[in-house]
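ARCHIVE ENTRY
Sequence with per-residue tokens
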Amino acid sequence: MDRYEKDERIETADAGLENDKKENPVPMVTEEEIYEADMEARREMLDRCRERIEKFPERLEYLAGAIGFATGMGDEDSARDSYDRLKGAPCKRWPSHAYGAAIDFLMLHPEQNAKEITAVIQEGKKYLVSDEIFIKEYEYYRCIGEPDKGIDALKKAVSTLKNASKAALLLLSLHLERGEYDEAVSVGEYALATSGIDNPKDIARACFQTLLARDARFQMAMNSGERISGDHENTLLMLDDMYEYLINNFSSQLSSMDIELARIRKEVLKFHRIRLDI
């Protein structure tokens, strides 16, 4: 059989699939149904936490879970009850996720709870060695319209913690959005060097965003009227190779839009190569 001819067995199978779709159509799920299913799952988890709290009142992780699920459901009364019990517990060092749950609850009314949020953040910094509390601090400042203070919190995490990869990834995106390309390259290299990035998609995203920052920095130099030197030519070739590598090796980790952007950037670099006869 010619390899371009379609096997009759394949055509029969395709026809069977089409008939099956017509006879047994996949039911459409509405956003309302998804929301209700999510709320029901949260209610079940909140009930489980409550049961465990009654059996093991000294286990603060169950109080933290109850705060988180109640906050997600918008049940402020239940969240407040669990938060007050957590705050009144004899043990002053909470489980790591309890700080985030408490801050999320208090941020339902950020201005009203400003002092308490700040106090929880400071307590978290005493005991936690991860960057999660600094990310919560960033979210709080962003929520109240002071993003620069939030960025300072992320910078503090990167400069003081041995491994602040999550804060670094967030900071990388923010620097790139703000056109701070030198800072983006620096924090991107930090993020890639830390062991905390164990998600392939995070690694690919960090590589891509750091490359975009390098590319933007190069384009600014090209448009500034600087004399084109051998360093510029080497940078151009390096950027082209790096985009090619990303396209060939990270296509399953990056979004289709990112891959398309990488291809467009390669075409822009090709334009410069033709213009400069490289």
The CA atoms of residues 120 and 238 lie 46 Å apart.
